[in-house]
Amino acid sequence: MRNLLLLAQIALVGTAVAADLPIREVILYKHGVGYFERSGELRAGDTARLDFKASDMNDVLKSLTIVDRSGGVIGGVRYDAAEALEKRLQDFPFAVDRQASLAAFLDQMKGARLELRLGSDTLAGTIISARTSKPDEKTPERETVVLLTDPGEIRTFDLGAASSVKLSDPKLQGLLRDYLTVLSGARSKDRRSVYIDAGGTATRQLSASYMTPSAVWKSSYRLIFGPQTEATLEGWAIIDNTSGEDWSNVKLSVVSGRPISFITQLYEPRYVTRPTAELAENQAVAPVVLQGAVAAGRAGTANLAAPRAIRPQAEAREFLADNLLKTESGQASSIAPTTDTRDLGELFEYSFSSPVSVKQGESAMLPFLQQKVNTRKLLIYMESFGLHPMNAAEIANSTGKTLDGGPITVYDANTYAGEALVETLKAGDKRLITYGVDLGARVTTAFDSSRANVREIHFARGILTTRNAIEETKTYTIKNVDPRRKTVIIEHKQRPGYKLLDAKPSETTADAYRFEVNVGGNATEAFAVREERVYDQTLSVSSVTPDMIATFLQNKALSEAGRRQLDQIAQKKREITANDGQLRQAQADLNNLTQDEERQRRNIESLRNVAGQQNLVQQYAGQLAAAEVKLTGLRDQESALQRKKTTLDGELNGLIEKAEF
Length: 661
Hints:
It contains eight helices and 31 strands. It is α+β, with helices and mostly antiparallel strands. It has four domains: 2-213, no CATH class; 218-261 and 327-439, no CATH class; 442-543, no CATH class; 547-658. Helix 6 runs antiparallel to helix 7 and helix 7 (560-607) packs antiparallel against helix 8 (614-658). The longest helix is centred in the C-terminal third of the chain and has 48 residues, at 560-607. The chain starts with a helix and ends with a helix.
C-alpha cells in the first residue's frame, strides 16, 4: 500500500488542481438539445475540466464556445480521445500493470534521474535497476532500487524506507500524469473530459457554453372558465434534468420552436485510405526467360509488357456542418402570474428570473403563464364525430406571447370539464379546441342533388366541349334539447371541384368550411350548404348523331353563330344518313337479285335435258334476261350513291373544319 502511495506522489508532483466551472445558465429547446453555460475563475496555471457523456461529444465539439471575460485569449482546448485504451497507452514509454509494484515501474525507467527522501536526507541518482526480492517465506517482500549517485557510487536503496519518491525530469512527470489520467478516464466508459488550460500569469474569468442532447421540455395548460366571458389560462413548463449533474441556482429558460439540428461525427477519429503510387522507373525489372529457337531465321525481339501504372483511388470528401445555436441572455420572468418573454426570430423564449435548482435525475414544473384570454364556449360538429357535436372553446391568443403546443385541462364552474390538445399558437392567432361530447344536442344530415345543366358549349377542331354544372345540397338539422341557447360551428369538408353557392363561412381552414349556427333552447334549426360542381365533357362531332346535335341546338347557352354552324352540320349529317339508307337498300336489292338469278340458272340447267320442258326453260330464260337488265340498273344506282356519299362526307368534313365557336 505504501508503494502505491509513493507512485501516486510521483504523478501528483507539480499537478495543478482542476478549476471548477459550475453551470450558470440552462436553455432547453423542443428539438432534443439544451444550451448550457458555465463560468468561473481560472487562476494562472489551472486547468478547467468539463465532463460529458461519450455520446454527447459530437454536439460539444460542434458547438463549444469559450470566452475569456477578462479580455485574454484562450490558446486551445484538449479532450479525451475516442480511441481504444490500448491504442492510447501504446505511445507511452512505460506501462503500469494492475499488479505492478513500485520497483517494477522504476525498472522501466532505467537512465532516469530519481530523488529519494530517507528520513531527513534527500538522495538523488540515475536509475540502474529496481527489483522485488523475497529471500524466504519468513522474510517480508522487499523492494529496492539501484542508483548511480552524483558522486559516482552505485548504491542500493530500500524503497520501503523512503517517505517520498520523485522523478526529477518534468517531462517524465508529465507523461506519468497523462498516463494515469488516461487510466482514470477509462474507468468510466461513458464519460469524456474536455480540458481548458489557462496560459499567462493573470487570473481569468472564463465562460464556456455548448449544446448537448437534452430531454425535451413539455408544456401543459389549465383553461379555467369563470363567471364572465373571459377565462384564465395557466401554462406550466415540465423539465427533466438528465444532464448528469445537479443544477444549482441556475438561470433557466425554455424555448418554443424547432430549429434544425443534427449530429455530425466529429468525435470519432477518421482515417482516410491513401493510394500507393510509384514511378515506373523505380520498380525493379523482373528477369525474362527466353525460349530457344526451333527454326533458323531472323532473330526475334522479345516484347516486354510495360509495368501497369497504379491509379490512385478517389479521395472521400466529407462535409462537416456546424449548427451552432447562439442565444442571448434576457430578463427572467418571476413565478408570479406575469411572465417576461421575448421573440428569438422564429423561436420564442420563456425565461425564469428566480434561480432554479433541480437535482440530477429529478424533474420540475415551473409556471410560465397565468393570464386572462379571450375565450368563447361553443359546439363544433363534424360528421366523423357521430350524432352529437363536441364541446369546444375558441381561444384567441391575446397574451402577446407565443403559446407552446401541449395538452389543456379544462375546468368549468369549478368542475373538471375535459381535456384537449392545442398546437403552438402565435400571438394574435386563435384556435378551436374540443374537450367533451355535448349530449344535449343532435345533428343529422340529408343529401340532395340536381341533374346536370349545360352552361357552355364550345366547338373547335371537330371536338364539341360542353361545360356542365350539377348542384348538390347538404342539409344539417340541429336539435337542441337543452333550455339554453347554443352556438354550433358546422365544419363542412371542402371537396375538389366544388364551390359554395350562397352560404358564406365564418372561417375557412385548409380543408374545410366553418359555418356558425345559433340554435335556441329546445329548438331545431336546419342549415343547408349548397355547392356546385362544374365539369367539362368532350365529344367528337363525327360520332354524334343528328338527334344529339338537335338537343344541343335547343340549349340557351349556345350562341347564334354556333347554332347556325351546328345546324348546318346536323343537316349535312341527315343527308348522309338518308344517302346511307338508300345505299344500304340498293346493296340489299343487288344481293337479293343476284341470289334470284343464281336460282334461275340452276333451274334452267336442271330442265335443259328433260323432254317436254322446253317452254318452261324459255320462260326462265326470259326472266333471267329481265333480271340482268334490272341488275345493271341497281349497279348504276349503287355507284351513284357511293359517289354521293363521298361528296357528302367531304362537305361534312369541310363544315367541321371551318366551324368554331
